[in-house]
Amino acid sequence: MKEIAKLLQEVNWIIKNRKSELAKNDDSFNMFRICGVNHYENTHSSILAELLDPNGSHQLHHKFLDAFINTLIKSGILPPEYVFGYQDVEVHREYATRFGRLDIVIKNSSGEAILIENKIYANDQFEQLKRYHAFGVQQYGTAFKLLYLTLWGNESPQTAPDKTDYLQVSYCEVILDWLERCIEIAVRSPIVRETLIQYSNHLKELTNQNTTSAMDKELIDQLSLTENLDAVFMISANLSNVKNNLINTVFLKQLEQLCEEMGLDLLSDPGDYVNTSWAGFQFSVPHWKNYKVLIEFGAQGLRNCIIGLAPKNDQVDTSALSKIKEKVGGGNARLAYTRFPKYQNWQADAMKAIISGEMKGIIKNEINKLFELLAEVEGV
């Protein structure tokens, strides 16, 4: 245990020292963060569309688009033989069709197209990808690709009967890899290059990759020392246990207190929340006949957290679901939900928020919001 305590002390010193250094250099200045670009899909779509447009103001013609397609091929998302012609390429934002508005449409005079649906934190609209796929088939036959772009490369929350052909693309890997290539391409265009660097750094913050390479190397070197290896592997092996322990011994008690304060019933018990698919927390609302409040993680590891409503069981009346989804802000064929605020992925900052009681306060506030939104909805 002394070895572990010593290692933690050394790692904390490295982190604090590096944070102090970062606060003094130019990396802490990022105009995208300052302007609050974080969760605005439209702004991200505008940036991507401008870069992908051969006629864009970057004046690098089709080089960024070519790099994008090559990145998709390199990532295994597109097949090696895929080819997209660069003749008369047009890039459109908010492309209006009778099937809905597509975030980005890239098309050429050969009748080929790439359709991009961009999701940062917003929820899917009803049968959104199904409708966009139908548009692609109608307009381009088989000569189109439908990309579903999210921070982590998630699947669409559409249920199985509504699933359609689309390709999952992530900001955290694919877009960041593409931007690295774009930065290389723009080496002789300093304004474009520096803008790309800032946007890339901003995306790294959004996807929890903002630790600098220097800090990574320093930490890795320290953790790789022979005298630290036993402690490193012991800590690594118990990371899930630490998270589960905080949830089971601290957070669930806080949720019980919250239920007493709000007149709810907690439907969740201690368990392995970290390694369970669709883990989460449920609350019964006495005056709701058909639905319960749900906090759920879309991916193992406490990632992609949502909050909303789910049917109490398979026998209840769910005819109000469409109205509930409209009020809440989205959902799928069974659930009405929105992204959980601030902590979509429960890492160290979320665990600290549990210990401090902040997480309990956020959940209480969000449940009260649901009550206000659904006060006039019948059939809840």
UniProtKB/TrEMBL annotation:
InterPro entries: PDDEXK_4. It comes from the Bacteria. Pfam families: PDDEXK_4. This is PD-(D/E)XK nuclease family protein. It comes from Chryseobacterium indicum.
